[in-house]
Recover the amino acids of this structure.
């Protein structure tokens, strides 16, 4: 259990703040490290050069002194003169060997013996706890007879090394402190920079069904967070709209169901209140049946809409000639239209990919709606045209102009075109919503316009071969929002 | 008249229907309704018993609920088809899901009804299924003094020619082929106009009203009757 918890904790990515702090620290440390290494090398080189110079100078001096030995007296005086010359140079060791390899002069030369020597080359060795570098050269001493003298000079450089060590120590310390500071600064900067995210979180936490109206201020959001804030606010807008529509919708649904149910109850109660003849009971049952049918149809339509919104409608499969469907429907509605003194005309042609039954249903709802509102003596025109990869099917009827403020809501559920357009006994105002659902499932859209006594409902569907553009993503939050 | 009975050559009384439905009320009213319509009905309430009965006895039609305890309606259908039985199967489902429909049809279901459905609709579909493959090749349909000549596309009532549109003719043919049956509006819309969805049923009312004007007005007896909330019945009174 705790193992799983630990594992979970280990898998969780580091916070942005921690990441930024770490990156800052690592960056500062590596930068300073490079600078420190370069500086250290420069100092070291400088010391090497100094030492080299020192050694050369000492050898030159010894060579000079050896060259001056031109008398026995001078030969006797040589050690003393060398001692004099080396006074104050207590980091310098000297050893002089005659041609037979015998040491005849030495000063602080404890470390020389064991070392290998090379002419001209610097040699480094350690003697006791001192570090020495040395060089040797061969000179000619004129007396007692001209002979070769090997001079070895050593230089104790341990104080340089101590110094370099101290410098390095300070550099390391400095780099560590600087890296820590950079990390801390990074942490602060990240925290400060990410504070707007915290505000988004706080707002999101504070949201509830009653407080959907809250929005983040876009003005004081930094550019990087602005997109998030805008997206967040946009999401809130859509949620709020969808939520409002849903609440209205449940209210409408309850209202729509209440009417037939209350009819049923009243009618049944009255029927039962006293004894009646069989015909009366039959009459009540038949009347109840009508109400039940109304409820059943509404439930069926609601179910259909719910399926459409959840993307459960069948995928468009066959090629459908809209003109054929329009004519079949015109045929179906002919008798009804004639009774109302309205003619139906179909013109044009266009093929779409889709489900024939559903498209027919969508069109049927439009036609039924148009007939309901058509003026006596007018013609309901169905026009089909293909253009720009889309098929437009327009159903136009002459009648009252629909007020512009009602147009956007016509395709919503339970909409019935305002109080003036009272219902004609059937259709709970779901027909146009169903039409829109079907059209959207086919990757199309619906439009409506109304002016000068002519109302036009238009379906725009991808033409055959163009349906790949088709089906929009299934709406998740707001089915009532047409895809942009 | 006998030639025009719903089931030529076989009387309803000898038609055996098995219903497997676990919802108590639905099962009871289906059994009552179908019995009163003249069928011999057996009702079982779970999938295991249903499958056993479906396989061990001889039936003319199965009515199966999809969701059943023990074994689903599909299981029963599968077992029946696996046993090589070709009898018609009608499914009842509360789920109006496309996958259900597709699955059922793949397994060999003959028809589907989504709850809630009208009993008249069920009855009409049951009769359609039972009649399948048994339609008589008739040239002329008769009821009382009405004659419908299918070859010459002519209708004559009481010796007078009645002019009908193509759809009115199709509607009258449907009525005359299914005399005595309650035909719900949705079934009429589906059979005559191929409108297989809950469409504006006013249309059917208007069409039937117009047909009535042509074949019933001024004639006795009236052949088309409206059953409120149910649909229409085309019937010639006995003995005419």
């Amino acid at each position: 259990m705790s193992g799983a918890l630990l594992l979970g904790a280990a898998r969780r990515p580091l916070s942005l703040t921690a990441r930024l702090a770490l990156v800052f620290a690592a960056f500062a440390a590596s930068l300073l490290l490079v600078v420190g290494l370069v500086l250290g090398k420069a100092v070291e080189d400088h010391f090497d050069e100094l030492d080299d110079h020192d050694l050369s100078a000492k050898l030159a001096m010894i060579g000079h002194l050896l060259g001056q030995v031109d008398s026995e007296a001078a030969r006797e005086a040589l050690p003393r003169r060398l001692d004099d010359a080396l006074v104050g140079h207590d980091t310098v060791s000297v050893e002089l060997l005659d041609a037979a390899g015998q040491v005849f002069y030495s000063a602080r030369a404890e470390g020389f013996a064991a070392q290998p020597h090379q002419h001209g080359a610097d040699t480094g060795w350690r003697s006791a706890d001192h570090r020495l570098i040395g060089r040797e050269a061969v000179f000619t001493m004129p007396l007692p007879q001209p002979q070769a003298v090997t001079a070895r000079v050593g230089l104790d450089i341990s104080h340089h090394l101590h110094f370099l060590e101290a410098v390095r120590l300070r550099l390391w310390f400095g780099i560590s402190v600087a890296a820590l500071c950079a990390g801390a600064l990074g942490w602060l900067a990240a925290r400060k920079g990410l504070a707007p995210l915290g505000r988004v979180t706080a707002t999101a936490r504070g949201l509830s069904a009653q407080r959907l109206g809250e929005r983040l201020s876009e003005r004081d959001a930094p550019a990087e967070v602005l997109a998030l804030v805008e997206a967040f606010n946009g999401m809130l807008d859509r949620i709020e709209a969808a939520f409002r529509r849903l609440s209205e919708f449940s209210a409408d649904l309850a209202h729509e169901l209440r009417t037939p149910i209350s009819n049923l109850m009243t009618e049944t109660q009255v029927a039962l209140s006293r004894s009646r003849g069989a015909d009366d009971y039959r009459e009540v049952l038949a009347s109840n049946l009508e109400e039940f049918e109304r409820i059943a149809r509404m439930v069926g339509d609601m179910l259909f809409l719910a399926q459409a919104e959840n993307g459960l409608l069948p995928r468009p499969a066959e090629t459908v000639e809209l003109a054929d469907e329009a004519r079949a429907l015109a045929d179906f509605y002919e008798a009804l239209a004639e009774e109302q003194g309205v003619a139906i005309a179909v013109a044009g042609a266009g093929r779409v990919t889709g489900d024939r039954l559903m498209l027919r249903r969508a069109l049927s709802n439009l036609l039924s709606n148009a007939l309901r509102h058509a003026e006596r003596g007018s013609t309901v025109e169905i026009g089909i045209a293909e253009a720009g990869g889309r098929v437009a099917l327009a159903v136009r009827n002459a009648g009252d102009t629909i007020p512009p403020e009602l147009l956007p809501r016509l395709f919503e559920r339970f909409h019935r075109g305002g109080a003036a357009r009272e219902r004609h006994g059937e259709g709970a105002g779901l027909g146009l919503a169903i039409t829109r659902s079907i059209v959207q499932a086919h990757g199309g859209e619906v439009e409506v316009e109304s002016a000068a006594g002519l109302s036009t409902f238009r379906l725009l569907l991808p033409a055959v071969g163009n349906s790949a553009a088709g089906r929009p993503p299934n709406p998740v939050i707001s089915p009532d929002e047409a895809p942009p | 008249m006998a030639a025009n009975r719903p089931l030529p050559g076989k009387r309803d009384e000898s038609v055996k229907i098995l219903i497997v439905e676990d919802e108590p009320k639905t099962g009871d009213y289906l059994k009552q309704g179908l019995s009163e319509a003249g069928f011999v009905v057996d009702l079982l309430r779970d999938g295991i018993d249903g499958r056993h009965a479906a396989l061990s006895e001889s039936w003319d039609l199965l009515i199966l609920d999809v969701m059943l305890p023990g074994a689903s309606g599909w299981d029963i259908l599968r077992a029946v088809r696996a046993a090589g039985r070709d009898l018609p199967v009608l499914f009842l489902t509360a789920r109006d899901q496309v996958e259900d429909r597709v699955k059922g049809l793949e397994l060999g279901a003959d028809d589907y009804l989504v709850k809630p459905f009208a009993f008249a609709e069920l009855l009409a579909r049951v009769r359609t299924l039972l009649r399948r493959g048994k339609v008589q090749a008739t040239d002329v349909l008769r009821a009382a003094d009405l004659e419908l000549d299918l070859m010459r596309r002519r209708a004559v009532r009481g010796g007078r020619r009645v002019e009908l549109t193509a759809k009115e003719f199709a509607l009258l043919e449907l009525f005359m082929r299914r005399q005595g049956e309650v035909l719900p509006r949705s079934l009429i819309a589906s059979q005559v106009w191929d409108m297989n969805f809950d469409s504006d049923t006013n249309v059917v009312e208007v069409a039937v009203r117009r047909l009535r004007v042509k074949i019933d007005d001024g004639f006795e007896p009236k052949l088309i009757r409206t059953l409120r909330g149910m649909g229409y019945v085309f019937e010639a009174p006995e003995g005419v």
About this structure: Chain A has a mean pLDDT of 79.
